[in-house]
Design brief:
The complex is a heterodimer of chains A (about 200) and B (about 220). Chain A has helices at about 1-10, 15-40, 60-70, 185-190; strands at about 40-45, 45-50, 80-85, 100, 110-120, 135, 150-155, 170, 175-185, 200. Chain A has about 200 residues and is α+β, with helices and mostly antiparallel strands. Chain A is elongated. Chain B has a domain at about 70-215: Immunoglobulin-like (Sandwich). Chain B is built from 4 helices and 9 strands. Chain B has helices at about 1-30, 30-70, 100, 200-210; strands at about 85, 110-115, 120-125, 135-140, 145-150, 160-165, 180, 185-195, 210-215. In chain B, the strands form 2 sheets. Chain B has a 5-stranded antiparallel β-sheet. Classes of the chains: A alpha+beta (about 200), B alpha+beta (about 220). At the A-B interface, helix 2, helix 3, strand 5 and strand 9 of A face helix 1, helix 2, strand 4, strand 5 and strand 8 of B. Chain B: This is DUF1254 domain-containing protein. Chain B: InterPro entries: DUF1254, DUF1254_sf.
Chain lengths: ~200, ~220
């Protein structure tokens, strides 16, 4: 009995078990990330996953969803889009200024509410210099002359020619992530006809 | 902790792999016999653990919420089994519990709780929300799937009573209530109540607090 113990500790079985379990964990992470990318639809830089939270998902989709969006709402309850890149694929950063331009009548259709929030790259809210953490359906958004709406995303206030104060969302100074949520998304979101406009870097 | 793992995942992985490479290198320098034993053990454990990690990942994730709800609570102390707690504040950068239940949601009040239905059904009561957006999500911890919703989308905003029963329960629900059959005895409950503005917070919170559970037959 004692001999077996000595053999186990000296032979490499323990190291093998540790290495095998760790490599399995890392592989599981890679598989979940890969499946997560496969079920993510990205349009104009904005990514959304529709499958998560639905009953009847397979083991891999369940695992990928639990990792990417744990206990998230089903898509027909709330549509979530995130992006860390502008429309040209460059990383969003507080060193630049961006505009999100909604053509006339193209704000996210919904029967609940919508809001746009900047977060740090992990997804946690950040302290805003304006005290406003988001813009959305309750904001007093000024329209351009053609009825379109520009939302300015930059750390410092844009000039007075850029519409209302509400049209400005203050962003963190470092790299950041944007999250847009539409609760009770409208039919155009659910059937895929609607897509968010790209985030455009202006300076 | 989660935040640190998310932020430093790559460097941590590189360090771990470097340690493994060093261990294997040391074994090789002692002779090939030990490496064979190590490799066989590693492959066997790997083949067993990989599907297990994938299969149990949703449960591990939801159990994180379970532990948080039952041990720490969401800012108001531990939340007993079969009770709901309404978080009085919306998420804020410094908000307590915000990092668990929500990121970037300053227009929702969250309600959380953990159900155990093995001893009998629970009745969820929701007040009249008068058109206000709200939802109560019921999540199966084994699959991390939302098997039912009560709320504006699915049941409307009138007051109502919903009987949640586990898979082993045989019975009939009282008149005037709606049955929701849960696939598991354990259920994660996440409620969300819309907050129009800072001035609306008080009313939203009063409504969120009225979303509550009672055992069937009390």
């Amino acid at each position: 009995m004692g001999n077996i113990l000595v053999w186990v500790t000296g032979s490499g079985v323990v190291q093998g078990v540790i290495i095998g379990a760790t490599m399995a964990f890392l592989t599981a992470i890679l598989i979940m990330n890969a499946v997560g990318r496969r079920i993510t639809a990205t349009v104009n830089g904005w990514s959304a996953i529709r499958a998560c939270g639905q009953p009847g998902n397979g083991i891999l989709v369940r695992a990928a969803c639990a990792k990417a969006l744990p206990v998230v709402n089903v898509f027909e309850e709330a549509a979530y889009w995130t992006t860390t890149k502008d429309g040209s694929g460059r990383t969003l950063s507080g060193r630049h200024a961006y505009v999100l331009h909604f053509p006339p009548g193209q704000l996210p259709p919904n029967d609940g509410f919508w809001s746009l929030t900047p977060t740090d790259v992990v997804g946690y809210m950040v302290t805003s210099s304006t005290g406003r953490q988001s813009v959305g359906d309750r904001s007093q958004l000024a329209k351009n002359t053609d009825g379109s709406i520009d939302i300015h995303l930059q750390p410092k206030a844009p000039g007075p020619q850029s519409g209302n104060e509400d049209n400005w969302l203050s962003t963190p100074t470092g790299n950041f992530k944007l999250m847009l949520r539409a609760y009770l998304p409208g039919a155009a979101i659910l059937n895929g006809a609607y897509s968010l406009p790209p985030v455009v870097r202006t300076q | 902790m989660n935040r640190l793992i998310l932020k430093y995942g790559y460097p941590i992985t590189v360090v771990i792999l470097a340690i493994f490479a060093w261990v294997i290198y040391r074994k090789v320098s002692h002779g090939w016999n030990d490496v064979v034993v190590l490799a066989v053990a590693a492959v066997i454990v790997y083949l067993l653990a990989l599907p297990a990690f994938l299969y149990f990942w949703p449960r591990l994730t939801v159990n994180g919420y379970k532990r948080a709800i039952l041990k720490q609570g969401l800012g108001g102390g531990p939340i007993p089994i079969n009770t709901l707690y309404a978080v009085p504040e919306t998420a804020a950068p410094s908000g307590a519990g915000g990092s668990l239940m929500a990121t970037g949601a300053e227009d929702l009040l969250y309600v959380g709780g953990w159900l155990e239905l093995a001893k009998g059904p629970q009745v969820l009561h929701v007040p009249d929300m008068s058109g206000r957006y709200y939802s109560v999500q019921f999540t199966d911890p084994a699959r991390s799937s939302n098997f039912a919703y009560v709320g504006k989308r699915t049941t409307g905003t009138r007051a109502g009573d919903y009987v949640l029963n586990g898979p082993g329960w045989k019975g009939t629900v009282p008149d005037g209530t709606t049955q929701i059959a849960s696939p598991t005895d354990s259920v994660l409950v996440v409620g969300r109540v819309f907050v129009e503005s800072d001035g609306d917070l008080h009313e939203a919170y009063e409504l969120a607090k009225q979303i509550h559970l009672e055992p069937l037959g009390r």
